[in-house]
Amino acid sequence: MKLRSIEIALPDPAGAAAWMVDVWGLYPADVRGSTHYLRGTGTMPYLVAFEQSDEEYVRSTTFVCSGEELAAIKARVTDKGWAAKPVTSADPGEGAGLLVELPEGTILRFLAGSSEVEAIDGFAKASKRVSPVKLTHVVFNSADAELLGHAVEEVLGFRVSDRTKGMVFVRCNDSHHSTAFARAGFASLNHVAFEMDDLDAVMRGIGWMRDNGFAPAWGPGRHGPGDNVYAYYIAPFGPVIEYSTAVEKVPADYRTGKPDDWTWPEQRIDQWGISDKDFAGLRVAEERFRCRRDWEPAPL
Ligand SMILES: [Fe+2]
């Protein structure tokens, strides 16, 4: 199981796509109808889709998986009675599977049989100042993060890696987390994290953003759970996005941490403690994109 992409509806997909290419460092992958698809240097056919809509919302977050994994999820979703529907993807990579609505409204899509593409490397990669490789996590705000952590373990076969005062971190493979649920008191998109090649690439990304007039809303820093380096920004079209390095790999028997395992000294919220955090600005951006089910449930 791998996190692949996020599908976002917003009024100006071309404008958002241009900024994500020119400033953030993604590559155009395709345009189908009014939907712009953007990829990284890795093998996923796209990481972000921007579809035209008068309203801003998250249509889905897509995971790719095997036929066996899909069948198991399908059986448990049906058993649980969650809103879901079978889908055949018309996005790059294609594939088929299901859309499912979690408690609180987060929409996930699981696809089997979707294809990957050649990685971008060498000269083409050198022509960009910075380039994300792939998505590394998509985090959601939630009213009841504990409930969602248990629900995705039971129904989707995910595993909770760590619980902190603020988050429930969830993995779907050996990466410490591919998603997480923030204890926010409301449900929405918290942020989308893009994996960079290494720490140097994160720092060069921060420099390139600075050249373009953007300062981090939080970072650079190094998180506790997952041990990843981060720099968070508020994109001009709304959502919080992150440059990140590879998240820690964990064994299958990783001991799930509790909030008391992850405490910081006073006034410290990451391992380095070198950066301020724009709590108010991030909060506004984190409330802006809600997940919305724009389809009717159907038998799987
Ligand atoms: Fe993150």
From TrEMBL:
Keywords: Dioxygenase, Oxidoreductase
Stretches assigned to the VOC domain: 134-246
Record carries keyword Secreted: no
Matches recorded under Pfam families: Glyoxalase
Record PROSITE patterns: VOC (PS51819)
GO MF, one annotated term: dioxygenase activity
Record's keyword annotation contains Oxidoreductase: yes
The protein's name: Glyoxalase/bleomycin resistance protein/dioxygenase
